[in-house]
């Protein structure tokens, strides 16, 4: 597509919520909670896997995870929209900060993993 | 931009992980776990709010949330990449299913809210 | 009961897992993931509520939440057992630290809420 | 101790919140959100581990996890208290249902794992 696909989803979700009068439910707090619930539905598919790769998922599991990843993105887009955050710009900016925090030539061990701070 | 900004982030995160040799850590299972941790860091800002709107956040809180939303997107993009899921296509498809499940003219109450099923 | 009910649950979950040969699945990492999934199932019941009180839940919702709280406790007990953590002792100790961090006479505002640090 | 240690923690958390006038913040919805945030802080310690066992944690990590498990229990106890759920009774009841769902002699594979349904 020749436009931002994140803006496209923002516009689609705005219309979807407007047509259903859901704005009153969509406070940032509620959207953050819904986002965490959807992420857990993704995680549920992986919790008992040994290798932790998608190869351990059957076709039904892979199809379900695909839709749950979609739900995560849709709530993330709506939450960012309510908070007036441009997700792509914020992500590029955050990657720049991460690059300073974790230089490519640093020791490549667990300590080099992004923390969640 | 005149390309997909989700594909742009996918390419940026691939390069970032490659430069740090992080592929061995980035199993779908680990990325799903990291995604849930980042989402909780977003939720933490809203957990005690009364109105649940961003207006209750101070400037520092809003800046922090912006970067945590970015972290959520970055892990989501990496997880989708490992699972070979096109996030925009999956989101549009899921919205189509949601539209069938929640017709615009249906009763507009809590029952009309998307479940997490 | 005249014994620790947390130790009682620890013993019951040990036997339950042993009878099903589930020890191989129950690494602390997997149990932590399962715990987060169960907590999300609790949160799901509250995500769209206005008042956020249990009064907004119907009888079926209250019964479901009761069992999901049970699931959270059961995974928490199993995770603590694997990590050799005595939950009651750890909780009493943590409350002591919280009491120092949040003195009763401190300003009683949002800033006085426990952080998640 | 010769009383229920879960009831002991319930009584301690009631007094702690009362002394700080935190009842107004402690709606079930907010407590469910706080619970999910604390669980993520536990999960954060395990997200990049290879074996997923506590052995990969250093002493500081183990001490931190111990306190985060305590935080999870403290919010769980407070949430159950608000919803008038007796956690031990609910857990024993849920284990009875799980025993019917997963008989000891059933096939012992991933399918035998408790789902999060």
Quick recap of the structure?
4 copies of one chain form a homotetramer. The first copy, chain A, is mostly helical and 117 residues long. Chain A has helices at residues 5-20, 28-44, 59-82, 87-101.
Kindly state the number of beta strands of chain A.
0
| Rg of chain A (C-alpha, Å) | 17 Å
The CATH first-level class of the largest domain in chain A comes to Mainly Alpha
Largest interface: A-B, 78 and 78 residues
Q: Could you tell me how far the N terminus lies from the C terminus of chain A, measured between alpha carbons in angstroms?
A: 35 Å
Mean pLDDT of chain A: 90
Q: What structural class results from the helix and strand content of chain A?
A: mainly alpha
Report on the biggest sheet of chain A: none
Instruction: List the quaternary state of the chains.
Output: homotetramer
- Beta-strand content of chain A: under 5%
Low-confidence stretches of chain A: none
State the share of residues found in helices of chain A, binned by percent.
55-70%
Query: What is the H/E order of chain A?
Result: HHHH
Number of helices of chain A: 4
CATH superfamily of the largest domain in chain A: MazG-like
Overall shape of chain A: globular
How many distinct folded domains of chain A?
2
